[in-house]
Amino acid sequence: MITNRWVMLILALSLLCAAPAVCTEKLSPIETLKKPIEKVTNILHDPAFKNSGKKNDQRNVIWKVAGEMFDFTEISRRTIGKKAWKTFTSEEKEQFIKVFSEFLGNTYISKIQGEYQNEQIIFLNELVRGNIALVRTKLKRASLEIPIDYRMKKIEGNWKIYDVLVENGVSIIKNYHIQFKSILRKESPQQLIERLEKKLVARKS
Amino acid sequence: MKYYLNQFGILIIVLFFLFTGCASQKGAAANPASVKLALNSNQPVQTGVLASASETQEQLSPEEEMLLTDDWADSDDEDNEAELYSIPDPFEKFNRASFYLNDKLYFWVLRPLSAGYRDVVPQKARIGVSNFFQNLKAPIRLVNNILQGKGRAAEAELTKFLYNSTVGILGFANPAKKHPKLNPDPEDLGQTFAVHGLGHGFYLYLPIIGPSSLRDITGATGDYFLNPASHIQPLEASLAAGGVRQINTFSFLIGDYESFKEAALDPYESMRDVYIQLRETKIKR
Lengths: 205, 285
What we know:
The structure holds two protein chains of two kinds. By secondary structure, chain A is of the alpha+beta class. Chain A is 61% helix and 20% strand. By secondary structure, chain B is an all-alpha fold. In chain B, helix 9 (189-195) packs across helix 10 (214-226) and helix 9 crosses helix 13.
C-alpha cells in the first residue's frame, strides 16, 4: 500500500515536472508571429470571404487570431504614458483598453483587407535580450519595401507585441502617445474614451 | 536668410562640380571593377539581413541596439520625454491651414490624377518611371554622403548610379536593387546639417511640399540644385517633370493617406510626429 502511494506520488510529481518541461519549450518571438500571420494570410485568401458582404465576418475572424499577438494593456499604458495612466481609474483603464484595442484592430484590419492582394510579408530576423525582443520584417509591395519591426515583451512566458516600428524607427505607439497627450491636456480621460468610441461608431456606419 | 541660402547654393554647386569631376575620373578607371567586386562579394552574405557594406554594418548594430533598447516607455520622466519627442511649432495656425489645403488638393486633384494615371499606365512602366527619377537624384545622395564623411556609401551610390544608368538603361531599371551593398540609406542635405549638429529649428507644413522644418526645407532647397531634373529648360518642362514624378509616386500610394487619416485622432499632430520620428531615424543611419 505504501509503495503504491509512493508510486502515485512519483507519478504525480513527474507529471508536474513534465508539464513545465513542455511549457519551457516556448516559441521564440519570430515563431510567435509567424503562425498567426500565416493564419491571417490564409483567412485573407479564403474564398469563403470573397463576397463583400462577408468582410465584417472576415474582420472578426482575423481579429481573433491577430489580437492574440498583442498585449493591449501594455500598449494602452504606453500610449497614455506612465504618469497619466496612474490618473485613470481602474474602470477608465478597462474602458480605454477595450476601445483602443478595438480602434487599432478596426483601423489596421480594414487596411490589410483592402490592400493585401499586392503585399507580402518577409520575416528577416529577431533580436532578443532578456524579456525584450525585436522582430524585423519587410512589407513588400510592387514598387517599394516598407520595413516593419515588432517590439515584443515576454509576459508570463509568452511573447507579445507592445509596439510596431515602421520605416526602421517610427513608433506607432509614440505617435498615438503624442496625440493623446495633447488631448488629455485639455480633456478628461472619459472624454478621450468617448472620442475613440465616436470614431469607431462613425466608421462602422 | 536669403544671403545664407545664396552662400549655401554656391558652396553646393562648387562642391558638386568638384565631385562630379572626381567622379567621372574615378568612375572611368575604377568602376567596372568595383561593380564586379560588389557583385561577387555580395553573394555569400545575401541571406543575412546585415548584408550591407561593412561600414553600414558597423552602424547597423548600434541602430539595432537602439531599436531593441526601449528607453522611452521605461522612463517615468515626462519632461525628458517631452524634450525628446516634440518640435516647436510657432506657426501652427499657418501650418494647419496648409495641411487643410494639401488635404483638399490630394482629394480633389492629386488622387484623381494619380488614379487615372494608374489605370492607364501599366505597373511595370510606373516602376520604371519611379526608378528613373530615383536614379536622377543620385547626385544629392552622393554629395551628402561625402559631406557626412560616409565614403563607402558615397562609393556605393556612385557605383549604383553608373550601374543603373548603363545596365539599367538610363535608370529605368534598377538592377542594383539586388545587391544590398549598393543600396545605402539615402542621404540629403537636411540630414547632413543634422549630422553637423544643426537642429530642426521649428516645424513647417508647406502648401504642396508638405511636412518639413526650417532645417530640412533649407536642405531641400540646396538639394534641389543637385537634382538634374531641376535644370531642365524651360521652366515649364522642369515643372512638368516634377508633376509626372509626383503623380507617378502617388499612383503607388493611393489609399495610404486615407488610412493614415483614419488611424489618427488628430491627423495634423500625427503627421508632425511621423515626420519628426522619420527624420530622426534617417539621421541616425
